[in-house]
Amino acid sequence: MSGTVVEIIRTEGEESETVARAAYEHPLVVRLCHWVNAISLFVMVGSGLQIFRAFPSFGAKIPQKDLLNWPKSFAIGGWLGGALQWHLTFMWIYLATGVIYLGYQIFSGNYRQVLFTQRDIPGVWPMVKHYFFFGPKPSQREAYNPLQKHAYTTAIGLGVLSVLTGLAIWRPVQFSWLAWLMGGFHWARLWHFLVMWATLGFVFGHLAMVILHGWNNFVSMLTGWKKDPEY
Amino acid sequence: MDPKNAKPGTGEAPSSQPKTVEPKVGAPEGAGAKSGNPKDATSEVVTSKAAASSIVQGGMNERRFAQASRRELLKLAPVLALGVFAIPRFQESLLKKGLGFSDWASERLFRRGHLALIFPDAEVTPFERFPINGYDVDDPGVIFENWSLTVSGAVQKPGDYRLGQIQTLPRVRQNTRHVCVEGWDVIGRFGGARLSDFLNMIGADTSARFLTVACADDYYESLDMATALHPQTLLCYEMYDQPLTRQHGAPLRLNIPTKIGYKQAKYLTDLKVTNVLDKVGYWEDQGYSSFYGL
Known about the structure:
The complex is a heterodimer. By secondary structure, chain A is mainly alpha-helical. Chain A has one domain: Transmembrane di-heme cytochromes, Chain C (Fumarate Reductase Cytochrome B subunit, Up-down Bundle). Chain A contains seven helices and three strands. A three-stranded antiparallel β-sheet of chain A has the order 1-2-3. In chain A, strand 1 (4-12) and strand 2 form a beta hairpin. By secondary structure, chain B is α+β, with helices and mostly antiparallel strands. Chain B folds into two domains: 3-75, no CATH class; 110-286, Sulfite Oxidase, Chain A, domain 2. Chain B contains seven helices and eleven strands. In chain B, the strands form two sheets. Chain B has a five-stranded mixed β-sheet. In chain B, helix 1 packs across helix 2 (38-55). Chain B is elongated and about 90 Å long. At the A-B interface, strand 1, strand 2, helix 1, helix 2 and helix 6 of A face helix 2, strand 1, helix 3 and helix 4 of B.
């Protein structure tokens, strides 16, 4: 599952001095989708919050209780119409990367690297102990540990849900069955909002872990190659 | 393709053809630029060949690895294309195109026979809590006695139609959801004549593409013909079984359960069947979606 591991020989003159290892962790399609998705997610959240500003509430208009007054400077689009333009443009990019990514993962078999399955369950607790500083670091034989797999699998699930809840509130008549599945139009709008916050929760956790895991790990999402992997 | 199939020692992405690193491509600029000594390039090729074949199986020279990494990084260049959205000159037209694509897709998603949900009376929002959302004034002061709907365009019987004539058409009453672009919605009870019946009455050319309306408060709107012919699209003169109030668009408004709220114009004065739109609608012309079907 860990991809190709190569040894890198650092040569000085004729002699081979040191050997470093590198693993090819992220195929090009995955890297492209990752960065396009990162940008489109940023736009979708920013414009979504501007759209939310038009009616920062759920349920009936009258009486209306404003849930939160999201500051305009932390939103994209400037006004409702502008934000809708951003949202309705980037949703296609967001959807396209999602479809390409999922299609690639499934047909290449690369999904095994990220998909959390039953056999990852025994590894969850030791990893939790390690993350919270009361357990040794479990040995790792693949690119992602069980908690990472869990996080990535959840994030992919949230991505799918964001599209489905979005469809339900964008076209509540044509996709009335979707809205019905979500408990009706009001609930679909609330789910869409909650899925966004859950996704943001993942993003902040993800960014924190990227910082903690250091440079080589970050570079692997740019070049595909991770130097000195832990397995 | 499985990453395992990547050819060891080449550093190529498994998704591309396994190309070997050609020293004449990579080495001179890479090695020469760093060391300033062309001799290094030659020795590097020799050592890396040796490394690949004999020293360590699957091994790769450090410099070769750096080249392979750089090449992989460059392959991400297409992501930069999204940067055009940050350029003010292109931004507006690109977003308009994106919105246009959404409208195009929505029009394809629209199903003529698919009905919007009809709600039981118990779920209807009380009349007092039905929001009033005018763009300008809540009452443009229509004088009912003088009111008529002026019909023009691709119709056999143009002219002025009085409310009484519209009310001779079969009356439809429906409890449907009214959705505002702002995000709120309300379930109301609407009554009126099917727009399709009225189009039949005026002998409209239903192969025309659009229908436009003008309003007493200078609001204006347009509608695609498919939606105009939808069985739930009403020329609405009643709400909650009572004649329309002034604030809700008396004497005649549109009720279109398959469209967003701003499409459902109030205080209608003119109706035209046409194939060309010189303007789309009050909000659309400021940047909102033209089709906005639900």
